[in-house]
């Protein structure tokens, strides 16, 4: 199945929707943690599935282990949203939430 690339206006609109959604999520997280949350502007990429690993590596590097949260959405707009955490970010989140033990796979899954 061939996917039509987004034009510049569609990409800008999608990026703005993602920016608003991430801003609201960041605000909720800041309230839960009682801590300021700094966010970058979301980056929108339309890629084929087989390009995912290379694209993520290009975006975040390959020096540190990462965790990702994937959210699929289906309707007139279909796709995947992926939020990526570096291991250091997961460790900081765990500390803010009161975890004082070394993170294992189960705790990391719970945090995400």
Automatic annotation (TrEMBL):
What GO biological process terms does the UniProt entry carry, in alphabetical order?
chemotaxis
- What UniProt keywords apply to this chain's record, in alphabetical order? Chemotaxis
**Carries keyword Signal?**
no
Q: Which InterPro entries match?
A: CheC, CheC-like_sf
Q: Where is the CheC-like protein domain?
A: 10-43
Q: Does the keyword Metal-binding apply?
A: no
Q: Name one GO molecular function term.
A: hydrolase activity
Q: What is this protein called?
A: Chemotaxis protein CheC -- inhibitor of MCP methylation
Name the species this protein comes from: hydrothermal vent metagenome
Q: What is the lineage of its organism?
A: unclassified sequences, metagenomes, ecological metagenomes
């Amino acid at each position: 199945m061939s996917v039509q690339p987004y034009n510049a206006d569609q990409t800008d609109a999608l990026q703005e929707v993602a920016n608003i959604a991430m801003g609201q999520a960041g605000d909720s997280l800041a309230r839960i943690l009682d801590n300021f949350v700094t966010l970058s502007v979301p980056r929108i990429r339309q890629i084929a599935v087989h390009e995912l690993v290379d694209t993520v590596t290009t975006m975040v590097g390959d020096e540190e282990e990462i965790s990702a949260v994937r959210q699929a959405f289906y309707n007139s707009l279909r796709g995947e949203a992926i939020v990526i955490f570096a291991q250091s970010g997961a460790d900081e989140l765990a500390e803010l939430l009161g975890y004082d033990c070394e993170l294992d796979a189960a705790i990391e899954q719970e945090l995400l």
